[in-house]
Amino acid sequence: MASSSVVRPFLEVPGLTEIRNILAQLEAPIVSALTERMNLPTDPSLYSDGGAKLLSFMSVRESIAAASGRYDYGRLEYPFTLPLIPPDITTPSNSFPPGRFHQDTYSGNANITSFYLNTLVPFFNSSTSFFYHLDNSTFNPDATFNLDATLLALLSHRAHIGKVVAETKFASNVSAITQMIQTNDTSAILAAVTNTTQEASVYAQASAAAMAFSNAWLNSGALELTSFNTTLQSATHALFQELIAITTEIEVQYLLQRLD
Ligand SMILES: O=C(O)C(=O)C[C@]1(C(=O)O)C=C[C@@H](O)C=C1
């Protein structure tokens, strides 16, 4: 992992249209993982400790992932259980011109974990499992935590792409946003990064993905209630609503530190 003493590469961020395409490409994997997870029964004891068991499961995976560079500079993947990469510091000899990625200290992972445990886990109440066990057992804690970890990593990656969304917005509106940063005007920054038309299009795409996945599961003869479609739509909507809020907060926090 890069450290603050190592010279970091100059990473230029893509334009807004390209980044929105990148965000859109994460919708199907997220809804797919959500659909899978909703079709595994949940032993309530797995989460009765406020998520401690899940985080301890993830910490082992994240240590292995860190060793292979998953959380390195510019990867836009931030661990839930390990220290974060040190921030960039702008100096006269090491300037960060608009359009160049600038690492800050903020992570949205605590918000993602709390949303996951409090809002999404209650949707995970399937009584059947797609794992077939000859002894008819349905509980499978390892498979369950694996999907949780996969889904959480996808949500986190998607939300932290907000850092490059923020950078590209900064580059296209430097003087106004610089003034907002200098006056610490969080509400003006929030207004500058919010685009409700784009949010509506994210909801529509996520909803279309949910429809396609639930139809695929139902058509495959999966042991699903016919209400699965509606339940998946509700979970998907709740998820994307929160994901957009967390992405937006990551954008605001990134900009507040942009000139540091
Ligand atoms: O596409 C943007 O402009 C973003 O800032 C990303 C995003 C999102 O999370 O999808 C977040 C906030 C905006 O209000 C709209 C969409």
Automatic annotation (TrEMBL):
Where mainly located? Answer: cytoplasm
Top-rank taxon, per record: Eukaryota
Where is it located?
A: Cytoplasm
Which InterPro entries is this protein grouped with? Chorismate_II_sf (IPR036263), Chorismate_mutase_AroQ_euk (IPR008238), CM_AroQ_sf_eucaryotic (IPR037039)
Q: Which reaction does it catalyse?
A: chorismate = prephenate
Any Gene Ontology CC annotation = cytoplasm
Query: One biological process GO term for this chain?
Result: chorismate metabolic process
What keywords would UniProt list here? Amino-acid biosynthesis, Aromatic amino acid biosynthesis, Cytoplasm, Isomerase, Phenylalanine biosynthesis
Q: Name one GO molecular function term.
A: chorismate mutase activity
EC annotation from Swiss-Prot or TrEMBL:
5.4.99.5
SUPFAM superfamilies per UniProt: Chorismate mutase II
Residues spanning the membrane: none
* UniProt cross-references to PANTHER family, sorted A to Z: CHORISMATE MUTASE
Tell me what this protein is called: chorismate mutase
**Species:** Gloeophyllum trabeum (strain ATCC 11539 / FP-39264 / Madison 617)
